[in-house]
Protein backbone atom coordinates (compact mmCIF):
# COMPACT_ATOMS: atom_id res chain seq x y z
CA UNK A 1 0.00 0.00 0.00
CA UNK A 2 2.76 2.44 0.99
CA UNK A 3 4.63 1.60 -2.21
CA UNK A 4 1.51 2.33 -4.28
CA UNK A 5 0.97 5.68 -2.53
CA UNK A 6 4.60 6.60 -3.15
CA UNK A 7 4.29 5.86 -6.87
CA UNK A 8 1.08 7.89 -7.08
CA UNK A 9 2.73 10.82 -5.28
CA UNK A 10 5.76 10.69 -7.56
CA UNK A 11 3.53 10.67 -10.63
CA UNK A 12 1.55 13.64 -9.33
CA UNK A 13 4.78 15.55 -8.62
CA UNK A 14 6.12 14.86 -12.11
CA UNK A 15 2.84 16.05 -13.64
CA UNK A 16 2.95 19.24 -11.55
CA UNK A 17 6.53 19.96 -12.56
CA UNK A 18 5.66 19.40 -16.21
CA UNK A 19 2.68 21.71 -15.89
CA UNK A 20 4.79 24.45 -14.29
CA UNK A 21 7.57 24.28 -16.89
CA UNK A 22 7.46 27.35 -19.13
CA UNK A 23 6.55 26.75 -22.74
CA UNK A 24 9.44 26.85 -25.17
CA UNK A 25 9.12 29.87 -27.47
CA UNK A 26 8.97 29.18 -31.18
CA UNK A 27 9.31 30.94 -34.51
CA UNK A 28 6.23 31.98 -36.47
CA UNK A 29 5.27 32.41 -40.10
CA UNK A 30 6.25 35.67 -41.72
CA UNK A 31 3.67 38.35 -40.92
CA UNK A 32 1.93 36.35 -38.22
CA UNK A 33 2.44 38.28 -34.98
CA UNK A 34 0.91 37.74 -31.56
CA UNK A 35 -0.83 40.79 -30.16
CA UNK A 36 0.88 40.10 -26.82
CA UNK A 37 4.25 40.69 -28.49
CA UNK A 38 3.06 44.01 -29.90
CA UNK A 39 1.84 45.05 -26.44
CA UNK A 40 4.99 43.87 -24.66
CA UNK A 41 6.84 46.70 -22.90
CA UNK A 42 10.07 44.99 -21.83
CA UNK A 43 12.05 41.79 -22.17
CA UNK A 44 10.95 39.27 -19.54
CA UNK A 45 14.48 38.14 -18.68
CA UNK A 46 16.47 41.35 -19.34
CA UNK A 47 14.37 44.30 -18.24
CA UNK A 48 16.79 47.05 -19.30
CA UNK A 49 17.15 45.86 -22.92
CA UNK A 50 16.43 48.43 -25.64
CA UNK A 51 15.27 45.70 -28.01
CA UNK A 52 14.84 41.93 -28.06
CA UNK A 53 15.21 39.27 -30.72
CA UNK A 54 11.86 37.49 -30.57
CA UNK A 55 13.18 34.72 -32.75
CA UNK A 56 16.01 34.04 -35.15
CA UNK A 57 15.56 30.94 -37.28
CA UNK A 58 18.07 29.58 -39.75
CA UNK A 59 17.80 26.64 -42.14
CA UNK A 60 20.81 25.34 -44.04
CA UNK A 61 20.53 22.72 -46.77
CA UNK A 62 21.99 21.90 -50.19
CA UNK A 63 20.39 22.21 -53.61
CA UNK A 64 20.81 19.74 -56.48
CA UNK A 65 24.04 21.47 -57.54
CA UNK A 66 25.44 21.14 -54.02
CA UNK A 67 25.28 24.85 -53.37
CA UNK A 68 24.67 25.81 -49.75
CA UNK A 69 21.26 27.38 -49.22
CA UNK A 70 20.88 29.42 -46.04
CA UNK A 71 17.36 30.66 -45.29
CA UNK A 72 16.95 33.02 -42.37
CA UNK A 73 13.94 34.59 -40.67
CA UNK A 74 14.51 37.09 -37.87
CA UNK A 75 12.06 39.14 -35.79
CA UNK A 76 13.00 41.95 -33.38
CA UNK A 77 10.93 43.89 -30.84
CA UNK A 78 11.81 47.58 -30.28
CA UNK A 79 11.22 48.80 -26.72
CA UNK A 80 12.47 52.40 -26.79
CA UNK A 81 14.17 55.03 -28.92
CA UNK A 82 17.61 53.60 -28.10
CA UNK A 83 16.57 50.37 -29.79
CA UNK A 84 15.62 51.99 -33.09
CA UNK A 85 19.12 51.49 -34.53
CA UNK A 86 18.21 47.81 -34.90
CA UNK A 87 16.03 48.88 -37.82
CA UNK A 88 19.11 49.52 -39.98
CA UNK A 89 20.09 46.24 -41.66
CA UNK A 90 23.25 45.37 -43.58
CA UNK A 91 23.70 41.91 -45.14
CA UNK A 92 27.24 41.40 -46.47
CA UNK A 93 28.14 38.62 -48.90
CA UNK A 94 30.93 37.59 -51.28
CA UNK A 95 29.75 38.74 -54.68
CA UNK A 96 33.00 38.14 -56.61
CA UNK A 97 32.41 35.70 -59.49
CA UNK A 98 28.84 35.30 -58.26
CA UNK A 99 30.21 33.18 -55.41
CA UNK A 100 27.27 34.17 -53.21
CA UNK A 101 24.01 36.02 -53.69
CA UNK A 102 20.95 36.96 -51.67
CA UNK A 103 17.40 36.60 -52.98
CA UNK A 104 13.83 36.49 -51.71
CA UNK A 105 14.25 39.37 -49.27
CA UNK A 106 11.07 40.32 -47.43
CA UNK A 107 10.95 42.92 -44.67
CA UNK A 108 8.23 44.76 -42.80
CA UNK A 109 7.50 46.88 -39.75
CA UNK A 110 4.47 45.90 -37.66
CA UNK A 111 2.86 48.44 -35.32
CA UNK A 112 -0.21 48.20 -33.12
CA UNK A 113 -2.59 50.87 -34.39
CA UNK A 114 -5.93 51.21 -32.57
CA UNK A 115 -5.56 47.69 -31.29
CA UNK A 116 -4.89 46.23 -34.74
CA UNK A 117 -1.57 44.82 -36.03
CA UNK A 118 -0.64 47.06 -38.96
CA UNK A 119 2.23 45.96 -41.23
CA UNK A 120 4.26 48.33 -43.41
CA UNK A 121 6.45 46.60 -45.97
CA UNK A 122 9.91 47.88 -46.83
CA UNK A 123 9.69 49.46 -50.28
CA UNK A 124 11.88 47.51 -52.70
CA UNK A 125 13.09 50.84 -54.08
CA UNK A 126 14.58 51.50 -50.64
CA UNK A 127 16.64 48.30 -50.67
CA UNK A 128 20.13 49.05 -51.97
CA UNK A 129 23.10 46.95 -53.01
CA UNK A 130 26.42 48.55 -52.11
CA UNK A 131 29.86 47.55 -53.32
CA UNK A 132 32.07 47.01 -50.26
CA UNK A 133 35.19 46.11 -52.23
CA UNK A 134 36.07 44.01 -55.26
CA UNK A 135 35.11 40.82 -53.41
CA UNK A 136 32.14 41.84 -51.30
CA UNK A 137 28.80 43.55 -51.62
CA UNK A 138 26.12 44.40 -49.08
CA UNK A 139 22.34 44.67 -49.19
CA UNK A 140 21.33 47.67 -47.09
CA UNK A 141 17.89 48.85 -45.99
CA UNK A 142 16.04 50.49 -43.12
CA UNK A 143 12.60 49.66 -41.75
CA UNK A 144 9.97 52.43 -42.05
CA UNK A 145 7.93 54.00 -39.25
CA UNK A 146 9.88 52.35 -36.43
CA UNK A 147 9.00 53.57 -32.93
CA UNK A 148 8.90 52.17 -29.41
CA UNK A 149 6.60 49.14 -29.52
CA UNK A 150 7.33 48.26 -33.15
CA UNK A 151 8.18 44.77 -34.32
CA UNK A 152 10.47 44.44 -37.32
CA UNK A 153 11.07 41.24 -39.22
CA UNK A 154 12.89 40.12 -42.32
CA UNK A 155 13.70 36.93 -44.17
CA UNK A 156 15.97 36.09 -47.07
CA UNK A 157 17.70 33.29 -48.94
CA UNK A 158 21.51 33.27 -49.13
CA UNK A 159 23.06 31.00 -51.79
CA UNK A 160 26.72 30.02 -51.32
CA UNK A 161 28.67 28.23 -54.05
CA UNK A 162 31.59 27.05 -51.91
CA UNK A 163 31.06 23.99 -49.72
CA UNK A 164 33.80 25.33 -47.45
CA UNK A 165 31.84 28.45 -46.49
CA UNK A 166 29.13 26.84 -44.39
CA UNK A 167 27.49 29.68 -42.42
CA UNK A 168 28.22 30.02 -38.72
CA UNK A 169 25.33 30.28 -36.30
CA UNK A 170 25.25 32.59 -33.29
CA UNK A 171 22.52 31.86 -30.78
CA UNK A 172 23.60 34.92 -28.81
CA UNK A 173 24.52 38.50 -29.62
CA UNK A 174 24.26 42.04 -28.32
CA UNK A 175 20.48 41.74 -27.82
CA UNK A 176 18.61 39.30 -25.57
CA UNK A 177 17.12 36.51 -27.66
CA UNK A 178 13.86 34.77 -26.78
CA UNK A 179 14.33 31.94 -29.26
CA UNK A 180 17.09 30.96 -31.67
CA UNK A 181 16.92 27.87 -33.87
CA UNK A 182 19.24 26.31 -36.43
CA UNK A 183 18.17 23.48 -38.74
CA UNK A 184 20.85 21.80 -40.83
CA UNK A 185 20.34 19.15 -43.49
CA UNK A 186 23.71 17.85 -44.63
CA UNK A 187 24.01 15.07 -47.24
CA UNK A 188 25.78 11.87 -46.25
CA UNK A 189 28.65 12.48 -48.66
CA UNK A 190 29.69 15.65 -46.77
CA UNK A 191 31.40 15.62 -43.40
CA UNK A 192 31.61 18.83 -41.37
CA UNK A 193 33.33 19.31 -38.05
CA UNK A 194 31.42 21.34 -35.45
CA UNK A 195 33.24 23.80 -33.23
CA UNK A 196 30.86 24.72 -30.46
CA UNK A 197 30.89 27.34 -27.74
CA UNK A 198 27.76 26.49 -25.77
CA UNK A 199 27.22 27.12 -22.07
CA UNK A 200 23.45 27.54 -21.96
CA UNK A 201 21.29 24.43 -22.42
CA UNK A 202 19.74 23.57 -25.75
CA UNK A 203 15.95 23.47 -25.41
CA UNK A 204 15.79 21.50 -28.66
CA UNK A 205 18.45 19.10 -29.86
CA UNK A 206 17.03 16.44 -32.13
CA UNK A 207 17.72 14.51 -35.32
CA UNK A 208 15.05 13.98 -37.96
CA UNK A 209 16.03 11.07 -40.10
CA UNK A 210 19.74 10.68 -40.62
CA UNK A 211 20.61 14.14 -41.96
CA UNK A 212 18.47 16.86 -40.37
CA UNK A 213 19.61 18.30 -37.06
CA UNK A 214 17.60 20.90 -35.13
CA UNK A 215 19.20 22.84 -32.29
CA UNK A 216 17.59 25.69 -30.38
CA UNK A 217 18.09 27.90 -27.36
CA UNK A 218 15.59 30.03 -25.48
CA UNK A 219 15.75 33.12 -23.26
CA UNK A 220 19.40 33.85 -23.93
CA UNK A 221 20.71 37.05 -22.32
CA UNK A 222 22.68 39.52 -24.40
CA UNK A 223 26.45 39.61 -24.31
CA UNK A 224 26.95 42.76 -22.25
CA UNK A 225 29.76 45.18 -22.98
CA UNK A 226 32.17 44.83 -20.07
CA UNK A 227 35.45 46.67 -19.43
CA UNK A 228 38.43 45.07 -21.19
CA UNK A 229 36.39 42.32 -22.82
CA UNK A 230 37.19 40.77 -26.19
CA UNK A 231 34.81 40.83 -29.15
CA UNK A 232 31.13 40.04 -28.62
CA UNK A 233 31.48 37.14 -31.05
CA UNK A 234 34.24 35.61 -28.90
CA UNK A 235 31.82 35.44 -26.00
CA UNK A 236 28.65 34.37 -27.80
CA UNK A 237 26.91 31.01 -27.80
CA UNK A 238 27.71 29.68 -31.26
CA UNK A 239 28.31 26.76 -33.59
CA UNK A 240 30.93 26.89 -36.35
CA UNK A 241 31.25 24.41 -39.19
CA UNK A 242 34.39 23.18 -40.96
CA UNK A 243 34.39 20.95 -44.04
CA UNK A 244 36.54 17.87 -43.43
CA UNK A 245 35.82 15.53 -46.31
CA UNK A 246 33.67 14.67 -49.30
CA UNK A 247 33.00 11.04 -50.02
CA UNK A 248 34.12 10.32 -53.56
CA UNK A 249 37.00 11.46 -55.71
CA UNK A 250 35.91 14.74 -57.28
CA UNK A 251 37.48 16.90 -54.56
CA UNK A 252 40.82 16.18 -52.95
CA UNK A 253 41.93 19.05 -50.74
CA UNK A 254 40.30 20.95 -47.90
CA UNK A 255 41.61 23.60 -45.55
CA UNK A 256 41.48 21.25 -42.58
CA UNK A 257 45.08 22.04 -41.57
CA UNK A 258 46.89 25.35 -41.35
CA UNK A 259 49.39 24.14 -43.93
CA UNK A 260 46.59 23.68 -46.45
CA UNK A 261 45.22 27.12 -45.57
CA UNK A 262 48.65 28.63 -46.22
CA UNK A 263 49.10 26.78 -49.49
CA UNK A 264 45.78 28.18 -50.68
CA UNK A 265 46.45 31.73 -49.49
CA UNK A 266 49.75 32.06 -51.36
CA UNK A 267 47.91 31.19 -54.59
CA UNK A 268 45.40 33.99 -54.17
CA UNK A 269 45.72 36.76 -56.75
CA UNK A 270 44.94 39.34 -54.06
CA UNK A 271 47.43 38.02 -51.50
CA UNK A 272 50.16 35.57 -52.47
CA UNK A 273 50.52 36.97 -55.99
CA UNK A 274 51.09 40.45 -54.51
CA UNK A 275 54.14 39.60 -52.42
CA UNK A 276 56.86 40.26 -55.00
CA UNK A 277 55.32 42.90 -57.23
CA UNK A 278 57.73 45.73 -57.99
CA UNK A 279 56.81 49.17 -56.67
CA UNK A 280 57.64 52.39 -58.49
CA UNK A 281 60.69 54.02 -56.89
CA UNK A 282 61.37 51.16 -54.49
CA UNK A 283 65.08 51.19 -55.45
CA UNK A 284 65.60 54.55 -53.75
CA UNK A 285 64.07 53.39 -50.46
CA UNK A 286 65.90 50.05 -50.53
CA UNK A 287 69.23 51.71 -51.34
CA UNK A 288 68.91 54.11 -48.41
CA UNK A 289 67.82 51.30 -46.07
CA UNK A 290 70.97 49.38 -46.93
CA UNK A 291 73.14 52.30 -45.78
CA UNK A 292 72.10 51.73 -42.17
CA UNK A 293 74.42 49.59 -40.07
CA UNK A 294 71.94 47.63 -37.97
CA UNK A 295 68.76 45.75 -38.81
CA UNK A 296 66.84 47.83 -36.27
CA UNK A 297 67.85 51.03 -38.04
CA UNK A 298 66.75 49.58 -41.39
CA UNK A 299 63.45 48.41 -39.94
CA UNK A 300 62.75 51.74 -38.24
CA UNK A 301 63.53 53.67 -41.43
CA UNK A 302 61.33 51.57 -43.73
CA UNK A 303 58.53 51.37 -41.17
CA UNK A 304 58.42 55.15 -40.81
CA UNK A 305 58.73 55.60 -44.58
CA UNK A 306 55.63 53.48 -45.19
CA UNK A 307 53.70 55.03 -42.28
CA UNK A 308 54.41 58.53 -43.59
CA UNK A 309 53.81 57.69 -47.27
CA UNK A 310 50.74 55.47 -47.17
CA UNK A 311 47.31 56.51 -45.99
CA UNK A 312 45.17 53.73 -44.59
CA UNK A 313 41.62 53.86 -46.00
CA UNK A 314 40.15 52.62 -42.67
CA UNK A 315 39.30 49.22 -44.20
CA UNK A 316 40.49 46.04 -42.52
CA UNK A 317 40.73 43.16 -44.98
CA UNK A 318 42.77 39.98 -45.24
CA UNK A 319 43.30 40.52 -48.98
CA UNK A 320 44.21 43.44 -51.22
CA UNK A 321 41.57 45.43 -53.04
CA UNK A 322 43.35 47.37 -55.80
CA UNK A 323 46.65 45.52 -55.30
CA UNK A 324 49.94 46.74 -53.86
CA UNK A 325 51.18 48.43 -57.06
CA UNK A 326 48.09 50.59 -57.51
CA UNK A 327 47.80 51.27 -53.77
CA UNK A 328 51.43 52.46 -53.76
CA UNK A 329 50.74 54.74 -56.71
CA UNK A 330 47.64 56.19 -55.01
CA UNK A 331 49.41 56.30 -51.61
CA UNK A 332 46.20 54.84 -50.16
CA UNK A 333 45.21 51.27 -49.37
CA UNK A 334 43.48 48.85 -47.06
CA UNK A 335 45.28 47.20 -44.14
CA UNK A 336 46.69 44.32 -46.18
CA UNK A 337 47.83 46.57 -49.03
CA UNK A 338 49.67 48.90 -46.64
CA UNK A 339 51.40 46.07 -44.80
CA UNK A 340 52.25 43.94 -47.85
CA UNK A 341 53.97 47.05 -49.24
CA UNK A 342 55.84 47.25 -45.94
CA UNK A 343 56.71 43.54 -46.13
CA UNK A 344 57.96 43.90 -49.72
CA UNK A 345 60.28 46.84 -48.94
CA UNK A 346 61.66 45.13 -45.83
CA UNK A 347 62.29 41.94 -47.80
CA UNK A 348 64.00 43.80 -50.66
CA UNK A 349 66.27 45.49 -48.10
CA UNK A 350 67.69 42.12 -47.08
CA UNK A 351 65.69 41.58 -43.91
CA UNK A 352 64.19 38.28 -42.85
CA UNK A 353 60.48 39.07 -42.85
CA UNK A 354 57.20 37.26 -43.45
CA UNK A 355 53.62 38.31 -44.07
CA UNK A 356 51.35 37.33 -41.20
CA UNK A 357 47.55 37.16 -41.27
CA UNK A 358 45.90 38.45 -38.10
CA UNK A 359 42.56 39.42 -36.60
CA UNK A 360 41.86 42.70 -34.86
CA UNK A 361 40.53 42.60 -31.33
CA UNK A 362 37.08 43.79 -32.39
CA UNK A 363 36.92 41.17 -35.16
CA UNK A 364 37.64 38.35 -32.71
CA UNK A 365 40.34 36.03 -31.43
CA UNK A 366 41.82 33.37 -33.69
CA UNK A 367 40.89 29.80 -32.82
CA UNK A 368 43.96 27.69 -33.72
CA UNK A 369 41.81 24.53 -33.66
CA UNK A 370 39.75 25.88 -36.57
CA UNK A 371 41.95 26.14 -39.69
CA UNK A 372 40.11 28.66 -41.83
CA UNK A 373 41.27 31.88 -43.45
CA UNK A 374 37.94 33.59 -42.78
CA UNK A 375 39.06 34.13 -39.17
CA UNK A 376 41.49 36.84 -40.33
CA UNK A 377 40.71 40.41 -41.28
CA UNK A 378 44.15 41.97 -41.70
CA UNK A 379 47.83 41.39 -42.44
CA UNK A 380 51.03 42.57 -40.73
CA UNK A 381 54.76 42.12 -41.30
CA UNK A 382 56.48 39.67 -38.96
CA UNK A 383 60.23 39.79 -38.29
CA UNK A 384 61.88 37.07 -36.17
CA UNK A 385 64.79 38.62 -34.25
CA UNK A 386 65.99 35.59 -32.29
CA UNK A 387 64.50 32.49 -30.69
CA UNK A 388 62.67 34.55 -28.07
CA UNK A 389 62.10 37.91 -29.76
CA UNK A 390 60.11 39.10 -32.75
CA UNK A 391 58.66 42.27 -34.22
CA UNK A 392 55.11 42.67 -35.50
CA UNK A 393 54.70 45.72 -37.73
CA UNK A 394 51.43 47.41 -38.66
CA UNK A 395 51.90 50.61 -40.65
CA UNK A 396 48.19 51.52 -40.75
CA UNK A 397 48.51 53.25 -37.36
CA UNK A 398 50.87 56.23 -37.55
CA UNK A 399 51.64 55.91 -33.85
CA UNK A 400 52.62 52.24 -33.74
CA UNK A 401 56.20 51.35 -32.80
CA UNK A 402 58.14 48.88 -34.93
CA UNK A 403 59.47 46.96 -31.93
CA UNK A 404 56.16 46.45 -30.18
CA UNK A 405 53.26 44.13 -31.01
CA UNK A 406 50.31 46.42 -31.87
CA UNK A 407 47.71 46.46 -29.11
CA UNK A 408 45.04 45.38 -31.60
CA UNK A 409 46.64 41.93 -31.98
CA UNK A 410 47.84 41.18 -28.45
CA UNK A 411 46.88 37.88 -26.81
CA UNK A 412 45.74 36.31 -30.04
CA UNK A 413 47.32 34.24 -32.80
CA UNK A 414 48.91 35.32 -36.04
CA UNK A 415 49.31 33.05 -39.07
CA UNK A 416 52.89 33.19 -40.34
CA UNK A 417 53.25 32.63 -44.09
CA UNK A 418 56.64 31.44 -45.32
CA UNK A 419 56.03 30.80 -49.00
CA UNK A 420 59.69 30.09 -49.87
CA UNK A 421 59.96 27.20 -47.41
CA UNK A 422 56.30 26.14 -47.70
CA UNK A 423 56.05 26.66 -43.93
CA UNK A 424 52.86 27.95 -42.33
CA UNK A 425 52.34 28.16 -38.59
CA UNK A 426 50.33 29.82 -35.86
CA UNK A 427 52.21 32.16 -33.51
CA UNK A 428 50.82 33.55 -30.26
CA UNK A 429 51.35 37.31 -30.11
CA UNK A 430 51.97 38.79 -26.70
CA UNK A 431 53.97 41.32 -24.75
CA UNK A 432 55.29 39.87 -21.51
CA UNK A 433 57.23 42.96 -20.39
CA UNK A 434 55.59 45.33 -17.92
CA UNK A 435 54.40 48.58 -19.49
CA UNK A 436 55.44 51.40 -17.19
CA UNK A 437 53.81 54.65 -16.20
CA UNK A 438 55.90 56.79 -13.82
CA UNK A 439 54.30 59.77 -12.09
CA UNK A 440 56.05 62.25 -9.79
CA UNK A 441 53.96 64.89 -8.01
CA UNK A 442 55.65 67.76 -6.17
CA UNK A 443 53.13 70.08 -4.59
CA UNK A 444 52.45 72.49 -1.76
CA UNK A 445 49.27 72.59 0.28
CA UNK A 446 48.12 76.16 0.96
CA UNK A 447 46.34 77.27 4.16
CA UNK A 448 43.37 78.41 2.06
CA UNK A 449 42.63 74.83 0.96
CA UNK A 450 44.40 74.85 -2.37
CA UNK A 451 47.22 72.80 -3.84
CA UNK A 452 49.84 74.14 -6.25
CA UNK A 453 52.55 72.08 -7.84
CA UNK A 454 53.93 70.16 -10.78
CA UNK A 455 53.57 66.67 -12.18
CA UNK A 456 56.18 64.82 -14.22
CA UNK A 457 54.78 61.84 -16.12
CA UNK A 458 56.90 59.37 -18.09
CA UNK A 459 54.92 57.05 -20.35
CA UNK A 460 56.48 53.95 -21.89
CA UNK A 461 55.48 51.60 -24.72
CA UNK A 462 51.67 51.43 -25.16
CA UNK A 463 51.21 54.28 -22.69
CA UNK A 464 53.53 56.35 -24.87
CA UNK A 465 51.48 55.51 -27.97
CA UNK A 466 48.27 56.63 -26.24
CA UNK A 467 49.77 59.95 -25.14
CA UNK A 468 51.28 60.76 -28.54
CA UNK A 469 48.15 59.75 -30.46
CA UNK A 470 45.80 61.72 -28.20
CA UNK A 471 48.00 64.82 -28.16
CA UNK A 472 48.53 64.92 -31.92
CA UNK A 473 44.95 64.00 -32.75
CA UNK A 474 43.18 66.28 -30.26
CA UNK A 475 45.56 69.23 -30.14
CA UNK A 476 46.95 70.74 -26.95
CA UNK A 477 43.81 72.55 -25.78
CA UNK A 478 41.57 69.49 -25.92
CA UNK A 479 44.37 67.28 -24.58
CA UNK A 480 44.65 69.50 -21.49
CA UNK A 481 40.88 69.32 -21.03
CA UNK A 482 41.13 65.53 -21.08
CA UNK A 483 43.94 65.65 -18.51
CA UNK A 484 41.56 67.54 -16.22
CA UNK A 485 39.09 64.65 -16.57
CA UNK A 486 36.05 66.92 -16.01
CA UNK A 487 37.47 68.12 -12.69
CA UNK A 488 36.46 71.79 -12.55
CA UNK A 489 38.59 72.25 -9.44
CA UNK A 490 41.78 71.45 -11.37
CA UNK A 491 43.50 74.17 -13.38
CA UNK A 492 46.48 73.38 -15.61
CA UNK A 493 48.60 76.47 -16.21
CA UNK A 494 51.21 74.88 -18.47
CA UNK A 495 52.03 71.64 -20.27
CA UNK A 496 55.40 70.71 -21.73
CA UNK A 497 55.90 67.47 -23.66
CA UNK A 498 59.37 66.08 -24.39
CA UNK A 499 60.59 63.31 -26.73
CA UNK A 500 57.26 63.08 -28.51
CA UNK A 501 58.98 62.34 -31.83
CA UNK A 502 61.68 59.97 -30.53
CA UNK A 503 60.14 56.50 -30.67
CA UNK A 504 62.89 54.86 -28.63
CA UNK A 505 62.30 57.04 -25.56
CA UNK A 506 59.36 57.39 -23.19
CA UNK A 507 57.30 60.52 -23.73
CA UNK A 508 57.58 62.95 -20.81
CA UNK A 509 54.95 65.41 -19.70
CA UNK A 510 55.60 68.27 -17.30
CA UNK A 511 52.43 69.82 -15.92
CA UNK A 512 52.03 72.85 -13.66
CA UNK A 513 48.71 72.86 -11.89
CA UNK A 514 46.49 74.35 -9.19
CA UNK A 515 43.81 72.35 -7.42
CA UNK A 516 40.98 73.52 -5.18
CA UNK A 517 40.67 70.97 -2.38
CA UNK A 518 36.94 70.51 -2.00
CA UNK A 519 35.55 69.67 1.42
CA UNK A 520 38.16 71.74 3.19
CA UNK A 521 37.06 74.33 5.79
CA UNK A 522 38.64 76.65 8.32
CA UNK A 523 39.85 73.75 10.47
CA UNK A 524 40.45 70.82 8.11
CA UNK A 525 42.05 70.26 4.72
CA UNK A 526 41.41 67.06 2.76
CA UNK A 527 43.40 65.86 -0.24
CA UNK A 528 44.19 62.72 -2.21
CA UNK A 529 47.68 61.91 -3.47
CA UNK A 530 46.43 59.96 -6.52
CA UNK A 531 46.71 62.64 -9.21
CA UNK A 532 47.16 62.50 -13.00
CA UNK A 533 46.59 58.77 -13.34
CA UNK A 534 43.75 56.70 -14.78
CA UNK A 535 43.34 55.00 -11.40
CA UNK A 536 40.63 57.19 -9.91
CA UNK A 537 37.62 55.12 -10.96
CA UNK A 538 37.26 51.39 -10.50
CA UNK A 539 36.06 49.87 -13.81
CA UNK A 540 35.23 46.58 -12.09
CA UNK A 541 32.32 47.58 -9.86
CA UNK A 542 30.00 44.84 -11.06
CA UNK A 543 29.67 41.91 -8.68
CA UNK A 544 29.49 39.47 -11.60
CA UNK A 545 31.37 39.00 -14.84
CA UNK A 546 30.31 37.05 -17.91
CA UNK A 547 33.43 37.58 -20.06
CA UNK A 548 37.17 37.24 -19.57
CA UNK A 549 39.27 40.33 -18.83
CA UNK A 550 41.93 41.03 -21.44
CA UNK A 551 44.14 44.01 -20.59
CA UNK A 552 46.38 43.20 -23.56
CA UNK A 553 49.57 43.94 -21.64
CA UNK A 554 50.95 44.09 -18.10
CA UNK A 555 50.50 47.47 -16.43
CA UNK A 556 53.08 48.81 -14.00
CA UNK A 557 52.48 52.06 -12.13
CA UNK A 558 55.07 53.87 -10.02
CA UNK A 559 53.59 56.99 -8.41
CA UNK A 560 55.44 59.25 -6.01
CA UNK A 561 53.94 62.30 -4.34
CA UNK A 562 55.72 64.84 -2.15
CA UNK A 563 53.38 67.31 -0.46
CA UNK A 564 54.57 70.27 1.61
CA UNK A 565 52.25 70.99 4.54
CA UNK A 566 50.95 74.50 5.23
CA UNK A 567 52.17 76.36 8.28
CA UNK A 568 49.88 75.98 11.26
CA UNK A 569 48.54 72.55 10.21
CA UNK A 570 49.32 69.05 11.40
CA UNK A 571 48.36 65.62 10.12
CA UNK A 572 45.06 64.45 11.56
CA UNK A 573 44.55 61.27 9.51
CA UNK A 574 47.15 59.52 7.40
CA UNK A 575 46.42 56.32 5.45
CA UNK A 576 48.53 53.37 6.50
CA UNK A 577 51.39 51.86 4.55
CA UNK A 578 50.16 48.61 3.07
CA UNK A 579 51.15 45.76 0.79
CA UNK A 580 48.63 43.34 -0.66
CA UNK A 581 48.27 40.93 -3.56
CA UNK A 582 45.69 38.81 -5.31
CA UNK A 583 45.57 35.16 -4.16
CA UNK A 584 47.71 34.12 -7.14
CA UNK A 585 50.08 37.10 -6.69
CA UNK A 586 49.29 38.28 -10.21
CA UNK A 587 48.66 41.85 -9.00
CA UNK A 588 50.73 43.41 -6.24
CA UNK A 589 49.75 46.75 -4.69
CA UNK A 590 52.09 48.61 -2.35
CA UNK A 591 51.66 51.92 -0.60
CA UNK A 592 54.30 53.55 1.54
CA UNK A 593 53.39 56.80 3.28
CA UNK A 594 55.29 58.88 5.80
CA UNK A 595 55.44 62.37 7.32
CA UNK A 596 58.77 64.05 7.87
CA UNK A 597 60.05 67.62 8.17
CA UNK A 598 56.74 69.22 7.27
CA UNK A 599 56.20 67.01 4.24
CA UNK A 600 54.15 63.95 3.41
CA UNK A 601 55.67 61.47 0.98
CA UNK A 602 53.49 58.86 -0.70
CA UNK A 603 54.74 56.04 -2.90
CA UNK A 604 52.34 53.82 -4.80
CA UNK A 605 53.32 50.83 -6.88
CA UNK A 606 50.96 48.58 -8.82
CA UNK A 607 52.42 45.66 -10.73
CA UNK A 608 50.35 43.40 -12.97
CA UNK A 609 52.13 40.10 -13.60
CA UNK A 610 49.66 38.87 -16.21
CA UNK A 611 47.29 40.48 -18.69
CA UNK A 612 44.40 38.00 -18.92
CA UNK A 613 41.96 37.09 -16.14
CA UNK A 614 39.36 34.44 -16.83
CA UNK A 615 35.79 35.07 -15.73
CA UNK A 616 36.14 32.17 -13.30
CA UNK A 617 38.79 34.24 -11.46
CA UNK A 618 36.61 37.32 -11.25
CA UNK A 619 35.42 36.92 -7.66
CA UNK A 620 38.93 37.27 -6.21
CA UNK A 621 39.90 39.85 -8.83
CA UNK A 622 36.81 41.95 -8.08
CA UNK A 623 37.40 41.88 -4.34
CA UNK A 624 41.04 42.91 -4.79
CA UNK A 625 40.14 45.82 -7.09
CA UNK A 626 37.49 47.00 -4.66
CA UNK A 627 40.04 47.23 -1.84
CA UNK A 628 42.77 48.71 -4.05
CA UNK A 629 40.61 51.52 -5.44
CA UNK A 630 39.33 52.33 -1.97
CA UNK A 631 42.94 52.75 -0.87
CA UNK A 632 43.83 54.78 -3.96
CA UNK A 633 41.05 57.22 -3.10
CA UNK A 634 41.72 57.49 0.64
CA UNK A 635 42.00 61.07 1.85
CA UNK A 636 44.84 62.61 3.81
CA UNK A 637 43.40 64.91 6.49
CA UNK A 638 45.19 67.96 7.89
CA UNK A 639 43.97 69.82 10.97
CA UNK A 640 44.72 73.38 11.96
CA UNK A 641 46.95 73.40 15.03
From TrEMBL:
Residues 1-19 form the signal peptide. Transmembrane segments: none annotated. Keywords: Signal. The keyword Signal applies. InterPro entries: DUF3857. Pfam families: DUF3857. Residues 70-222 form the DUF3857 domain. The keyword Oxidoreductase does not apply. It comes from the Bacteria. This is DUF3857 domain-containing protein. The lineage of its organism: Bacteria, Pseudomonadati, Bacteroidota, Sphingobacteriia, Sphingobacteriales.
Amino acid sequence: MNKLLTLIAMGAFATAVKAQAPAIPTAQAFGKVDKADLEMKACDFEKDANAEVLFDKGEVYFDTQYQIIFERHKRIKIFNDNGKDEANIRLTFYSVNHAEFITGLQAETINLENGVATPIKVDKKQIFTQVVDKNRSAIVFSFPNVKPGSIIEFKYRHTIASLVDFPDWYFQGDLPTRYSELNTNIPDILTYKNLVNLHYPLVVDKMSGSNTHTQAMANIPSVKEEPYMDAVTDNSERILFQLLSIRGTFMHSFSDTWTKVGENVVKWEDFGEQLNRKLIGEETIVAKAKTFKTDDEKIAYIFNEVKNTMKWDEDYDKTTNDGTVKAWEKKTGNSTEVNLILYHLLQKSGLKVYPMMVSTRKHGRINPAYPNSYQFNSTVAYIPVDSAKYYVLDATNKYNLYNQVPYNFLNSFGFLINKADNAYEMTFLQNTNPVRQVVLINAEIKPDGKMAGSADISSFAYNRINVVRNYKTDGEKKYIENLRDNNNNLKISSLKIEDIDIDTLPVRQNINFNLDLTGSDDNYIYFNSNLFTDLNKNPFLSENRTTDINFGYRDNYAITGIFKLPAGYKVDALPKSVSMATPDNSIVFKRMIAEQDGQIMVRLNIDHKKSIYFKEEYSDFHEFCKKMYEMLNEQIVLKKS
